[in-house]
Structure formats: C-alpha cells, structure tokens
Amino acid sequence: MKLFSHILQIIIFSGLLVACRKSELEKPAPQPYRLPVPVNFPAPQYETYNPLTKEGIELGRQLFYDVRLSGNNKISCASCHHQNLAFSDGISLTNIGVSGTTLSRHSPTLINMAWANNGLFWDGGSTNLESQAFGPLTEHNEMGQNLFELMDELKAVPGYITAFKEAFDEDISSANVVKALAQFQRTMVSANSRYDKYVRKENGASLNKQELKGMVLVKQKCQGCHSTDLFTDNLYHNNGIDNDFSNPGIDDLNFGRYRVSYNMKDMGAYKTPTLRNIMLTAPYMHDGRFKTIEEVLNHYTENIKYSESLSPVLIQNGKIGITINNEEKQQIIAFLHTLTDEDFISRKSLGKP
Asked: Which of the four pLDDT bands, split at 50, 70 and 90, describes residue 253?
C-alpha cells in the first residue's frame, strides 16, 4: 500500500512538473509591432537588435512619463518633451533638472525618431536612441538618476516586474529601460498634417495659393538642409549664427559637431531639425536664441555670420545668405503652418498612460 502511495505521489509530482514546463513553453512571446510608414516617407532604419513589440512600446510609454526615472522623483522624460508642443518644451534653455542649473542647449523635439539614424543630440554625440537615453537619465543637471537606485525603485513596483518580463522575457535592467524608451520614441511618427494629406491626395485635401507659393519657396530656398518629406537631411551644418569659437563652453558644447568629429569643417555645426510642427516648437536653434519664426527667417536673409566652416548651401552665387523678400517670408510662414500635425499632438497612444 505504501509503495502504491509513493508511486502515486511521483506520478502526481511528475504531472505537475510537466504542466509547469508546458506552461512555460506556452508563455506568449512579445507581439511584433510593424511601424506604419507613410507613403511619402523613405523607409526607416533603426536598431534591429531592439525590434519593436507592443509590450516593449507600452512599457516605454510608462517609463517615458514616470518621474521615478529622475533622482528626485520629480522629473520624467515628458517634463522636457510635451506632446502638445510636438515633444518640445517651449523654453529656450531649461533649468528644471535635478540640480536647478540652466542647461547650455535647447531641448530638441522628438519627431519621426525612427528616421533619426545619423546621431542624436544637437551634435550627434550619441549614435542611437538606446545609448542617447543614458545621457539625460544620469546627467546631474538633467534627471540625475543613479541607475542602481533606479533598478531598485522599479523592482519595487510589481507592475514593472511583470511588464519587463512580458516585453523582454528578462528581469528589470538599465539596458532594457533604454530599449523600451527607444521603442516608444520610434512610434512618434508625425505624418498627418494638412501638407501630408495634400501630397497624398487624401479626401480632396488642398492648400490655398499663399500656402502653395510657400511650399515652392521652401523647396527652392530651404531644401539644401530641410530635404524630403521628413524636412531634414539628418546632417550637421554651421548655419552662421556664430563665427567666434574661441570660447568652447562647458564640455566644448559651443564647438557643435566638431566636439564629436574633430573635423574643422564641423566647427559650429548642429543637426538640422525637422520643419514638421515647427510652429509649435519655438524657440529655435540649438540654444533657443530665436523666439519666433520671423527671427529665424531674418537670420537667413540678413544676419548670417561668415566663418571657414559655414555651410556651403548658405553661399549662393558668391553671396552669403538666402534671398527672400518680405512677401515671400509670409508665404513660407503660411506653408509652415500646414506642417502642424494635430493628430500627432493629441494621439492617445503617445500620451500619458
């Protein structure tokens, strides 16, 4: 009788073990997410080692809006990247970081990040979204977070333990934090403006005469840097806002792309921002020095400062600057308004959970 009972226990235990293994094998894998690519956009190129999944994207959204990512638990990624401002902050140089120190550079917009494949930050100091995230997370003048403490904070939240398992089938780690953030940011696709609907001939969309003239002018005058329907070439240009680089600033930030490349042709060069949603993302330039789009246009027509590294696209027919009269400036501004994407700034999947 004892032998039968012992055998029965072994059978039951074996059955439970098999059931557990079967349960593990049947654990659902993360669901792949296919990024919708607008027909007027080129194909995106992003990190294949971090494929988009629904679980990873949603985890990234949770983290993007979570103040736990900062050392004082008061600042999230969204603190400097507001959806209603096309993920900019409306401030020339912010000082809301943990230290309260005013930063040296303007918070960049987060628009069509899946196509940002030629470096990030204003000088391209980071190669991809994954590595980029470590900068603001740990910089003491920004989010000022100790990554070991962050892991402890996230592990104290049962929902995060589950979410990381579902997204990566791994425990919480700093590597997976930045991978999730990158996945979410790559879904920040802005391609549903009035301009987009017009070029895609959707539902009889149209632009008025002023806007159409502005569109032609932008293609003629601005496409040297703001090219394709991304309205950026993802390259770095010295656009003549400075010509004295004798003061490098903290960490050589005033050197622009030269800080990274050590190529004199990159002295004072900064990454071309997209023109998309530009009427929402003032102030402008890497240091937010221009408060209005009118100031930007006036710079290109009247105030460019020459230096050896000035972008060649700003020297036309032996003359420095871009020739645009006042009427044409108003036409360009009218067109730039058509690049505002109301869907992008209100899309629930990009908003706070």
From this structure: confident
Q: What is the mean pLDDT of the chain?
A: 92
Among 2-11, 202-211, 237-246, 341-350, name the one with the lowest average pLDDT. 2-11
Question: What share of the chain in percent tops pLDDT 90?
Answer: 86
Residues 6+ apart with CB under 8 A from 214: 331, 332, 333, 334, 335, 336
pLDDT of 18 over the 50 cut = no
According to DSSP, the β-strands at 319-320 and 315-316 are antiparallel
Q: Would you tell me the crossing angle of helices 158-168 and 54-64 to the nearest 10 degrees?
A: 140
Residue 3, in any domain of the structure = no
Record the tokens describing residue 201, joined without a space. 């001939």
| Beta carbons within 10 angstroms of residue 26's beta carbon | 7
Q: Is 232 part of any domain? A: yes
On the question of pLDDT at 25 being above 60, the answer is no
Mark whether 99 and 206 lie in a shared domain.
Answer: no
Asked if the structure places residue 353 within a domain, the reply is no
Position 218 in a domain: yes
**Token pair of 116 as six digits:** 């940002």
What count of other Cβ atoms lies within 10 Å of the Cβ of residue 164?
Answer: 22
Is residue 182 a contact partner of residue 133, using CB atoms and an 8 Å limit? yes
Please, which residues have CB within 8 angstroms of residue 54's CB and are 6 or more apart in sequence? 30, 31, 32, 33
286 and 332 in a common domain:
yes
155-196 pLDDT per residue, tens? 999 999 999 999 999 999 999 999 999 999 999 999 999 999
* CATH of residue 79: 1.10.760.10
d(C-alpha 128, C-alpha 116), whole Å:
8
Q: Which residue in 45, 53, 59 sits closest to 129, CA to CA? A: 45
User: What is the pLDDT at residue 11?
Assistant: 46
Bridge partners (DSSP) of residue 320 are: 315
Q: What is the pLDDT of residue 3?
A: 45
* Same domain membership, residue 176 and residue 310: no
Range of the domain at 100: 54-190
Shared-domain flag, residues 138 and 270: no
Task: Please provide the distance, in angstroms rounded to a whole number, between the alpha carbons at the two ends of the chain.
Answer: 60
